[in-house]
Amino acid sequence: xxVCRWRAFLRRQSPNFKVKPNxxxxxxxxxxxxxxxxxxxxxxxxxxxxxxxxxxxxxxGEELLxxxxxxxxxxxxxxxxxxxxTIGDGEQARQHFVHGFLxxxxxxxxxxxxxxxxxxxxxxxMVPQVLAPLRLKGRVHALEAQAARANTQRTLKFTLPxxxxxxDTVADRFYGDRVKMAxxxxxLLNEExxxxxxDGVDIVQFDEPAFNxxxxxxxxxxxxxxxxxxxxxxxxxAVHICYGYGIEANNNWKKTLGxxxxxxxxxxxxxxxxxxxxxxxxxxxxxxxxDLISLLSGKxxxxxxxxxxxxxxxxxxxxxxxxxxxxxxxxxSKLIACTNCGMAPMSRELALAKLQALVxxxxxxx
Length: 366
Ligand code: ZN
Prior knowledge:
α2 (about 60-80) crosses α4 (about 140-150), α6 (about 180-200) runs parallel beside α7 and α10 crosses α11. It is built from 11 helices and 11 strands. The strands form 2 sheets. An 8-stranded parallel β-sheet has the order 1-11-10-9-8-7-5-2. By secondary structure, the chain is an alpha/beta fold. It has one domain: TIM Barrel (Alpha-Beta Barrel), CATH 3.20.20. It binds zinc ion. Zinc ion (ZN) binds near residues 38, 209, 240, 242 and 341.
């Protein structure tokens, strides 16, 4: 949904709704190739521990809520200043991209986490346990979605974990069936996705790194669960599939994947047939054969042009080179230059430099 359409939508929902522009509306919006982040951005040191995947918050109660909101607004502004055309909340209000959602789900015991091997035992994580039927306690992401919406007129994307990735990041002590539990989570995701759409979010993206681990299952039921999570949405829908954050366990795993990474090959045909509008893939410094994009015929493609595992910002030329390669398989009008994955565990300075490189490279290629 474009800016004008969401404003009209909100007016219909709430006649007193007013958009309060905090930016110069005459400022030109970015043109040419669209740019976006995959999802997460580093949290400031005053909000939480830094450079960790599961950081501890530094504040509590009302102070924590205010700090989460402030950090969201800070990154919205930073993305606008860098020149991105699509803006995200940077996942500043959630400790982790999966557990941030689970905290608002009834039926989950968060007090007693257990250690579990995740992503086919690639690494261990402390995960909460599902003990009873699942139900949302209420809104999950209203605070940061509304804060982001109130502070940008650009296209706003909001990320949620996908059902298959959720079931791979929680211990099941109740359902006894991954598929059944995934579809139960998909219904809850759908509820929150509709609420985000009503908040004025333009794109709801589901993150499914598990699709690159359980490829046969992803094609078999993962995409169907995703469709349940996205059912009935009028806003744009997207799925992000990646090789994970730039952490040591993932970097070591990538070394075992051989000369060509063909994981996407199994799930892209199922996604091409689905209703999901945008699909992301990881390209910069990866061994993914670019021609796999041809399996996504008709879809918009978020091409990963920023490596989240390197500690050096790409040059504009590095970014432009990948975009130009991708353009052999997807027209410019359907190409969105994006980061390979989230940037949560990185330093703020590096993330900012990478945002600037993303936009400079897209301009160079565009
Ligand atoms: Zn990712």
